[in-house]
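Workshop exercise sheet. Pairs work together: one partner reads the sequence aloud, the other fills in the structure field after running the prediction. Swap roles for the next sheet.
Pair: D.N. / O.F.
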Amino acid sequence: MFTKCFSRVILLMFTGLGATVFCGAVISMQDGEPAERMQRAKQFSDQGNWQQAADVYAKLVAEKEIDSKILSEALTQLVTCQGRLNQVEKLDATLREAIAAHPNDWRILETAARLLTTTQHHGVIADQRFTRGYARRNGGVFVQVIEQDRLQALKWLRSAMKIAKDNGVEDASEEFGRMQLALADLLFLGRYGQQAWQLQALTDLTSEPDYLDLEAPASAPTRFAPAVDNEPVLYKIPESFDDAQSDGERMRWALEQAKQSPKSKPVAIRRWADFLHSQFSVDTLQQDMWFFNRSSSSDSDDAKDRDEGIAAVHTLDDNEAIA
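Structure field:
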């Protein structure tokens, strides 16, 4: 009887000691200088211990007196860990909590906009609640939310740019050039190829995204590059973002502003060239090859049309295109 009681006492002592050591390890993981904790979290990530890394990053993001660049990187890595853990449904709350904790930190706002832009743009509505991703559908309604994400990210990014300017970030700086490029990319989100006609609209940035909208169309119809009076719509460069009459003009303004940064200038030029190529190059004819190949007749008129007609690409001058 004495032996059994003694053994239990020893076991309880070791159990208590183990719990104390474990708790001490957890506390140690969360303490220390921010740079040290970031390194510790990175080690967890490198080992595949995503949850432990996420816990460290989450605590860093929630703290107030931490360098803005560290906060931004911690938020990015936290979302990466959540993705590895198949927890994309946590993204929306994570971003909003980070912004609530640091409402005047332009880097956090910029990072939140970027992370929302690059995530999955779909989810499920159930019990008047939107859950991002495929997981935990629970019989809800599957919805696409790319337009809602685009609007929310635009609002966050515009706020980030205003705060950055108020804090002395120069237009020609690398940071501001990066944000201008991100703004152009956001305006273009969901408007690639035959969806680019939507750039003629002007997104209302005073409205709030409705993630419970069950009536919004899953996608917009496809159309060819828009033209007015047989002239292609190229979108003029407005005097300012607020003077723009369409999202296309906003995009042109953002790309033009990005050119003030030496590092962003070549990227901005290439983005506009890529847009023009996607809309007006002869490559766009490939989507209608059925039309040009509709007849294999050797009739002389058909042959002449192929060699000299409107689709005869080899007859184009350097300043001409067919789209």
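Discussion prompt: Residues 9-15, 17-28 have pLDDT under 50 and may be disordered. What would you look at next?
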